[in-house]
Here is the input.
Amino acid sequence: MAFAYKIAKNLKIKDKIIIKSLNKFRGLPHRQEVVFSDKKLLCINDSKATSFDASLQSLSNFNKIYWIVGGVPKYQDNFYLKKVKKKIVKAYVIGKNILFFKNQIKKDIPFSVSKNIKTAVNHIFKDLKSDKKSKKTILLSPAASSFDQFSNFENRGNEFKNLITKKFIKRSNV
Here is the structure.
């Protein structure tokens, strides 16, 4: 946004017009996309984050994170969680390369193996019941490609969005 603002200013566009345009901007799906938000919970679909560096952006932006991570890791990808480990409550490892992800995160943050997104979301909601602290974030930011369980990152992100939507439809009917 800062880059766009600077270009607009160079083009002598008034602040009022720039701000109006920025407020209308909606990000692309699967890129830190807000799926649900209320006073207690924020659910973010960052399925496009297919490397640790990409996930690090989301991990840096949120707090009290219940992180869904896993899939097919990038060649020689390494996780450096030192700067964000205090932001992560727990990781939920999905996919077929579980050992890789366990080895990357086991020294820094608590985790459980969920194998797939549906199980991860169910585990998170169980864990949330015992966490009465401030606003929490459910973050799908897998730091890996999706090809072990999905045809692409869009399908993975859509599955996450559907699961979150179903959870909140259920909750509102109770």
